Amino acid sequence: xxxxxxxxxxxxxxxxxxxxxxxxxxxxxxxxxxxxxxxxxxxxxxxxxxxxxxxxxxxxxxxxxxxxxxxxxxxxxxxxxxxxxxxxxxxxxxxxxxxxxxxxxxxxxxxxxxxxxxxxxxxxxxxxxxxxxxxxxxxxxxxxxx
Length: 146
Hints:
alpha+beta
Protein backbone atom coordinates (compact mmCIF):
# COMPACT_ATOMS: atom_id res chain seq x y z
CA UNK A 1 0.00 0.00 0.00
CA UNK A 2 2.80 2.40 0.92
CA UNK A 3 4.72 1.53 -2.29
CA UNK A 4 1.62 2.20 -4.39
CA UNK A 5 1.24 5.68 -2.88
CA UNK A 6 4.88 6.49 -3.49
CA UNK A 7 4.70 5.27 -7.10
CA UNK A 8 1.48 7.23 -7.66
CA UNK A 9 3.06 10.39 -6.22
CA UNK A 10 6.11 10.00 -8.49
CA UNK A 11 3.95 9.50 -11.58
CA UNK A 12 1.82 12.57 -10.73
CA UNK A 13 4.96 14.67 -10.20
CA UNK A 14 6.45 13.53 -13.51
CA UNK A 15 3.25 14.22 -15.43
CA UNK A 16 2.96 17.65 -13.82
CA UNK A 17 6.52 18.42 -14.93
CA UNK A 18 5.77 17.35 -18.50
CA UNK A 19 2.63 19.51 -18.63
CA UNK A 20 4.45 22.55 -17.23
CA UNK A 21 7.35 22.05 -19.66
CA UNK A 22 4.97 21.71 -22.62
CA UNK A 23 2.93 24.76 -21.58
CA UNK A 24 6.02 26.95 -21.20
CA UNK A 25 7.57 25.92 -24.53
CA UNK A 26 7.54 28.97 -26.88
CA UNK A 27 6.93 26.89 -30.01
CA UNK A 28 3.65 25.65 -28.55
CA UNK A 29 2.38 29.21 -28.33
CA UNK A 30 0.66 28.64 -25.03
CA UNK A 31 2.78 30.84 -22.81
CA UNK A 32 2.52 34.43 -23.96
CA UNK A 33 5.69 36.15 -22.75
CA UNK A 34 4.47 39.67 -23.57
CA UNK A 35 1.71 39.35 -20.98
CA UNK A 36 3.71 37.64 -18.25
CA UNK A 37 3.67 39.61 -15.02
CA UNK A 38 4.44 36.47 -13.05
CA UNK A 39 5.39 32.93 -13.96
CA UNK A 40 1.82 31.83 -13.28
CA UNK A 41 0.14 33.45 -16.32
CA UNK A 42 -0.77 30.97 -19.02
CA UNK A 43 -2.32 32.50 -22.11
CA UNK A 44 -4.49 30.82 -24.68
CA UNK A 45 -3.65 30.96 -28.37
CA UNK A 46 -6.34 33.62 -28.82
CA UNK A 47 -4.46 35.82 -26.30
CA UNK A 48 -1.32 35.71 -28.42
CA UNK A 49 -0.61 39.16 -29.91
CA UNK A 50 0.18 39.62 -33.56
CA UNK A 51 3.90 39.83 -34.26
CA UNK A 52 5.19 43.30 -35.01
CA UNK A 53 8.39 42.78 -37.00
CA UNK A 54 9.65 46.26 -36.12
CA UNK A 55 10.09 45.14 -32.49
CA UNK A 56 11.92 41.89 -33.23
CA UNK A 57 15.61 41.62 -32.48
CA UNK A 58 17.98 41.43 -35.43
CA UNK A 59 19.66 38.41 -33.87
CA UNK A 60 19.55 35.94 -30.99
CA UNK A 61 22.50 34.28 -29.29
CA UNK A 62 21.61 30.57 -29.20
CA UNK A 63 24.61 29.18 -27.35
CA UNK A 64 28.00 30.20 -26.08
CA UNK A 65 31.08 28.16 -25.20
CA UNK A 66 34.24 29.49 -23.65
CA UNK A 67 37.43 27.67 -22.72
CA UNK A 68 40.70 28.72 -21.16
CA UNK A 69 44.09 27.11 -21.47
CA UNK A 70 46.65 26.76 -18.71
CA UNK A 71 48.46 29.78 -20.15
CA UNK A 72 45.38 31.96 -19.71
CA UNK A 73 44.40 31.97 -23.40
CA UNK A 74 40.61 32.31 -23.59
CA UNK A 75 38.69 31.11 -26.66
CA UNK A 76 34.97 31.73 -27.08
CA UNK A 77 32.54 30.38 -29.67
CA UNK A 78 28.96 31.61 -30.00
CA UNK A 79 26.08 30.45 -32.19
CA UNK A 80 23.79 33.22 -33.40
CA UNK A 81 20.51 33.21 -35.35
CA UNK A 82 20.36 36.32 -37.53
CA UNK A 83 16.78 37.43 -38.17
CA UNK A 84 17.58 40.71 -39.87
CA UNK A 85 17.03 40.81 -43.62
CA UNK A 86 20.13 42.94 -43.98
CA UNK A 87 23.30 41.04 -43.16
CA UNK A 88 26.06 43.59 -42.83
CA UNK A 89 29.40 44.25 -41.20
CA UNK A 90 27.57 46.67 -38.88
CA UNK A 91 25.24 43.92 -37.65
CA UNK A 92 28.13 41.51 -37.12
CA UNK A 93 30.03 44.21 -35.21
CA UNK A 94 26.96 44.77 -32.97
CA UNK A 95 26.89 41.03 -32.18
CA UNK A 96 30.60 41.09 -31.33
CA UNK A 97 30.35 44.27 -29.23
CA UNK A 98 27.33 42.98 -27.28
CA UNK A 99 29.13 39.70 -26.52
CA UNK A 100 32.26 41.48 -25.36
CA UNK A 101 30.28 44.00 -23.28
CA UNK A 102 28.49 41.19 -21.43
CA UNK A 103 31.33 38.65 -21.17
CA UNK A 104 34.57 40.55 -21.58
CA UNK A 105 36.88 40.36 -24.57
CA UNK A 106 38.36 36.88 -25.13
CA UNK A 107 41.63 36.24 -26.93
CA UNK A 108 39.72 34.69 -29.85
CA UNK A 109 36.03 34.84 -30.73
CA UNK A 110 34.30 32.59 -33.26
CA UNK A 111 30.76 33.59 -34.27
CA UNK A 112 28.71 30.97 -36.14
CA UNK A 113 25.80 32.60 -37.99
CA UNK A 114 22.53 30.81 -38.80
CA UNK A 115 19.43 32.05 -40.61
CA UNK A 116 17.22 30.71 -37.78
CA UNK A 117 17.30 28.87 -34.50
CA UNK A 118 15.73 25.90 -36.32
CA UNK A 119 18.79 25.58 -38.55
CA UNK A 120 21.01 25.50 -35.48
CA UNK A 121 18.78 22.98 -33.69
CA UNK A 122 18.64 20.71 -36.76
CA UNK A 123 22.43 20.67 -37.08
CA UNK A 124 22.61 22.72 -40.28
CA UNK A 125 26.04 24.24 -40.87
CA UNK A 126 26.24 28.01 -40.33
CA UNK A 127 25.88 30.22 -43.41
CA UNK A 128 28.88 32.24 -42.23
CA UNK A 129 31.61 32.05 -39.60
CA UNK A 130 33.37 35.11 -38.25
CA UNK A 131 36.73 34.48 -36.62
CA UNK A 132 38.34 37.26 -34.58
CA UNK A 133 41.81 36.97 -33.04
CA UNK A 134 42.23 40.00 -30.78
CA UNK A 135 45.86 39.21 -29.90
CA UNK A 136 47.08 39.10 -33.53
CA UNK A 137 44.47 41.60 -34.80
CA UNK A 138 42.98 39.13 -37.31
CA UNK A 139 39.36 39.27 -38.51
CA UNK A 140 38.09 36.72 -41.04
CA UNK A 141 34.62 36.03 -42.42
CA UNK A 142 33.99 32.70 -44.16
CA UNK A 143 30.69 32.50 -46.02
CA UNK A 144 29.28 29.10 -47.02
CA UNK A 145 27.80 28.82 -50.50
CA UNK A 146 25.31 25.97 -50.48
